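Researcher: For the record, we're logging two predictions in this thread. I'll number them. Prediction 1 follows.
Model: Prediction 1, sequence and structure:
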Amino acid sequence: MAMTTTETLGFLEGLLQYLTVNQGTLAAKGLTVTNWITELETQRDTAVAKNTQQEGLKAQLRTLTHETETALTTVYNNGSTKLDAIIGVLGKTTEEGKQAARLRSDIRRTPADPPVVPPTPNP
């Protein structure tokens, strides 16, 4: 099971504290952990830096998403207003007006379902 960033860093901090406090006991049993501590601290620092960078990019993405949605809404509303003017000038009941109106209505219209072909019977 994968751990969250907080869980991973919490585990690592606990491990580093344990290794530091018990370094002498472990050395007496033949296990030197000095290099382990250095390695884990370096890896922790890299992970924290990458996570900080990632969180900053997430914040930028949220801001950019909002700005994009605003820009798309603005351009759609502007274009739709202009299309309404065109339809008004042409007349909504004229063929030209209906054709112009379809520019907007066809955007989400799903194509008609293809006709269902009955299966060929096996003799």
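Researcher: Logged. Prediction 2.
Model: Prediction 2, sequence and structure:
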Amino acid sequence: MTQPHRLWTEPLVEIMLGRLNADAKFRKLAAGVEAKIQLRCTDTPDGTDIVASYHIHDSRLDCTSFDEQPAPAPMRNLPLDKSVYLARTTAPYSIWVKLDKGEMGVIDAIISPDYVFEGAKLKVLRHLRMFSRISEMSQEMEKRYT
């Protein structure tokens, strides 16, 4: 039997995007949204940092890059390019696990000192239902954390 993919791995992202882009509820919530975002995860169980870039467009979400480097990676110090990205979030792996397990909600994360949000917070909050749907679907997926 194959073991499930771990959170914050590229194969899990690909499966998640396939499910998300086939989900009628997500597609409805993403209708008319055109934005690029970045998510950064520090200190994964593999001792790496990851930055994943996403493009929300045409009622879908696509991963445009997935970069993994040994921690602490230089990407931790790169400024957000606000001319390209609507927002970026950075958190240690342990926070992403809490989010995925439902132990922390999106709003809780945004106000947490361990979860760094950069960018247009009000614009992101305008699409909170869409981002919450992404979180809900991720929580439903089989995965492992270690």
